[in-house]
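Morning, I've got a small favour to ask if you have a moment. I'm working through a protein record and want to make sense of it properly. The fold is given in discrete form, as structure tokens running alongside the sequence. Can you walk me through what the tokens say about the fold? Thanks so much in advance, here it is:
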Amino acid sequence: MKDDILDAASRRKLFLSPDALEIIDSNGYPMEMVNTMLNAMAGNKMFVTKEDVIDFLNGDKALFEKEKTAKPRNKRDLDIEVVPGSDITGNSTCEGTIQDFTAYFRSRYNLLKRIISSHKDFTMSTSIAHAMQFDRQVNIVGMVYEVRQSQKGHTILTVEDETGTCNVLIKKDSPYADNIYINDEVIGITGKKMERGTLFVADKVVRPDISKRHTWEVSDSTSSVAFLSDIHIGSKEFLKTSWERMISWLKANAYDMGLNYIVMPGDVVDGIGAYPGQEADLEIDDIYRQYETLAEYVKEIPDDIKIILHPGNHDACRLAEPQPAISEMYAHGFDSNVTLTGNPIRLKIEGRKVTSYHGKSIDDFISAVRGMSYDDPLAVMREMALRRHLAPMYGMRNALAPEKKDYLVMEEEPDIFVSGHVHGAGTMEYHGVKMINASTWQAQTDYQAMHNFNPDPCIMPIVDLGTGRVVMKNFMK
């Protein structure tokens, strides 16, 4: 409680004396009343004493009653939208044909080539077929087909475009030799064909990446967005007490602090048959009742908060990504403040660009890329941003649907990039992007314990849309 009081005072640039804090905390006043009191003092003083608190309690309680009957926020004032073209829901056309796969990888290649070609030092490129006809330095853009090491320790990449393939030599003493290259990513290469032979020798490798010039520009927004991932309703390990603590906190604080938006990045229910032996971990073994129960829990969130909810691999929709929104057949119980979208999704919230992705491909990165682990999902997210692709590797554990457009390309540089899936909680900044792994509301299951999977539960990341400040609010305590 003391932390909440101090947070509320800090937001108003107020400093509480120790005895002022003690009298507020020891009397157990509701946060609604505390917020009203601090609002009355803000702007008039900087330091709040015990006497200030007593004066308010003796003479100004009427302010509290007045605020309780205040008109709720007008939902039309909220500024949030799904970016057109970012949601697969209702737009899936793939049938798994050769033509579908061709269109899918062509879309990926062209989208990422456009990003690479926007780099100021990589504006002109030629096709692989054309580059291999000459021995002068040129730029090419290729999709990595194979990565291998030569006997002498050089890196050799087989890359391809729509005109052909070539083998790219990255010498072991090159500054690009230690880079991590993976199949199906798209890269730019500056170099030239060897005078003798068929190797293309790389002088420089360019990744799509987030521009180093990308920064968080402070705005006058007074709103915040919170993230609630991997709720896992239906699991015996759902942490109901912490969830209820979070709901109580939202009711007391969300309005005052401008917490107007919540994004739920998947695995909102535990699902059925998601992993071997899951039935032993289920409190609710009916998928319909899991979503009905979720809807009842979500209704406890103040209804003037706009909620975006999309699926993960435990939810009732296809596993192949991109995933369409959860069907109304399951999710009909949600109120009008909840919008169901596909996974991944791009949002614009009060001008901020938000990319939300459940994060199933984290499994593939960890299994294929040296140095990646479940203990550091943010490092994996950084690798995604470097490649401007959420799930570049095809044919691994994470299924990908060959749509005519690759929805997993990070077409825009986000201001906020959030994922879930691995039940970790953390935040970092990468080239001006606030990266967030959004925790879980499920304690460790027996299956997770068997795989040394240690969750960091009941932490709600909150981002101030004006300043970019990220707070990790812990509700386990």
Remarks:
- Residues 75-93+213-474 form a domain with the Purple Acid Phosphatase; chain A, domain 2 fold (CATH 3.60.21.50).
- Residues 61-76 have pLDDT under 50 and may be disordered.
